[in-house]
Design a protein that fits this description.
heterodimer; A: alpha+beta; Arc Repressor Mutant, subunit A; three-stranded antiparallel β-sheet; B: alpha+beta; four-stranded antiparallel β-sheet; 8 helices; disordered N terminus
């Protein structure tokens, strides 16, 4: 009974906050351990999923957030205007891919990999909350290292960054090895 | 940055990748003469109106020509009798790496539809939600200003008659006002600086005053998480 009450309390907190709430914060508010709070939230998440409720609980690393379930977006759009989505440009997506797999990465590394100036793409990703400046890197010039955010996990539908598919998954099928099937030409 | 010719390619590596695909060649065995010729043809026909982009394409063009010329010379063996690496290798690795990232970007592109189908509620301001105040940047300040203008609904006023009022609060006066507030407590809430129902002009003056004082290293601003209130502290 007490668990039911605490689970509902967690639900109320998430609704009231709107933004993502750290697990530790919820645990503190409920007066239980992080582990116990996590169990309650997982249970709540399963309940929402099982009934295909209009709301789902999304976990990003150690934070939780209440979001509307994607299945019902058409209904939402019929009544609430201004929910249109702004899809990202190819340049922004390439930049995001590089930050995701090379983080923490500097601006100039992104530009070298893409072969073009990428400042505006990076700024756009920061503005959208998908990328954030992290720590200054311990290399000459102490450049800023950029990394992905919880919002990025939401985009990828992942709970933690370690769930990101391996880089190698994408290079499979692409011919990559020099020298295996080619001979060096002399002009 | 609107240049019709360049809409297709994200940059020189993208162009090279497309030439490689079109000619069905191995990234690590690029026929330099063919690819360099096609690359240069593209640069000439494209017209290169965008100087910055053109520079990036030309840098790679010069690399292509350098590699091509290196390959015309017979490879010289070094003291250990080893042949030097293929002059194309470095570029080939860059193209191959770029190709993987392009594949990843396709994958991410397909995630967007589901992502934009989830709606979140506008966040509430809960000071206790995030434990620590973090340093903030220009983007977060802009977001704070936007929320402020929305909160006081000045963005949605309809002006039938437009009168330009004299500055009710000059930035210099606003700075004095903020100093006055900070005198008592040495720290203040950003939102609290604006008072009840401020005019748009007042919001902007106070906002500029805060920026100016940060610039002069008089105060420090921190924010607790996204959308949180901003705390102003005397340095």
């Amino acid at each position: 009974m007490e668990d039911e009450r605490l689970k509902s309390a967690a639900e109320a907190i998430l609704f009231a906050a709107g933004q993502s709430v750290p697990l530790g914060g919820i645990a503190k508010a409920l007066g239980v351990s992080d582990k116990a709070a996590k169990e309650l939230l997982e249970e709540l998440k399963r309940e929402y999923d099982r009934a295909n409720r209009g709301i789902r609980l999304v976990q990003m690393e150690n934070e939780y957030q209440m979001l509307s379930r994607g299945d019902y977006i058409e209904y939402i759009r019929r009544i609430i205007r201004g929910t249109s989505s702004a899809f990202m440009s190819q340049a922004a997506l390439e930049t995001l891919a590089i930050v995701a797999y090379r983080q923490p990465v500097t601006r100039s590394d992104v530009e070298f990999i893409r072969g073009v100036s990428s400042s505006s793409s990076l700024d756009l990703l920061i503005e959208r909350g998908l990328v954030r400046p992290g720590e200054k890197l311990d290399i000459p010039g102490r450049p800023m290292g950029y990394e992905t955010t919880g919002e990025f996990l939401k985009l990828m539908n992942l709970e933690t960054l370690t769930d990101l598919p391996d880089f190698e998954t994408f290079s499979e099928g692409l011919q990559l090895r020099l020298g295996e099937n080619t001979e060096v030409e002399n002009g | 940055m609107q240049n019709v010719s360049f809409e297709v390619f994200e940059g020189p590596l993208d162009l090279l990748l497309s030439l490689i695909a079109k000619n069905e060649i191995d990234v690590f065995d690029i026929p330099m003469a063919l690819v360099t010729r096609q690359y240069m043809e593209y640069i000439y026909t494209a017209g290169m109106l965008d100087i910055e982009l053109a520079t990036e394409f030309i840098v790679v063009a010069s690399q292509l020509i350098e590699i091509k010329s290196q390959m015309m010379l017979p490879p010289e063996e070094d003291e250990q009798g080893e042949t030097p690496p293929d002059p194309r290798q470095e570029l080939a690795e860059r193209i191959a790496q770029y190709r993987v990232f392009k594949a990843i970007s396709e994958y991410m592109k397909n995630k967007q539809t589901a992502y934009y189908s989830m709606i979140e509620k506008e966040s509430e301001y809960f000071p206790s939600l995030k434990e620590e105040y973090a340093p903030i940047d220009a983007a977060m300040l802009t977001a704070a200003l936007k929320r402020l203008l929305l909160r006081f609904d000045t963005a949605n006023l309809e002006y039938e008659e437009y009168t330009v009022a004299a500055d009710e609060l000059a930035v210099a006066d606003a700075i004095e006002m903020v100093r006055e507030i900070l005198k008592k407590e040495r720290k203040a809430s950003f939102l609290a600086l604006f008072g009840q129902r401020p005019s748009r002009g007042r919001i902007i003056s106070v906002f500029l005053a805060v920026l100016e004082m940060v610039k002069e290293n008089e105060i420090e601003i921190t924010q607790e998480g996204l959308y949180g209130d901003i705390r102003i502290t005397v340095v």
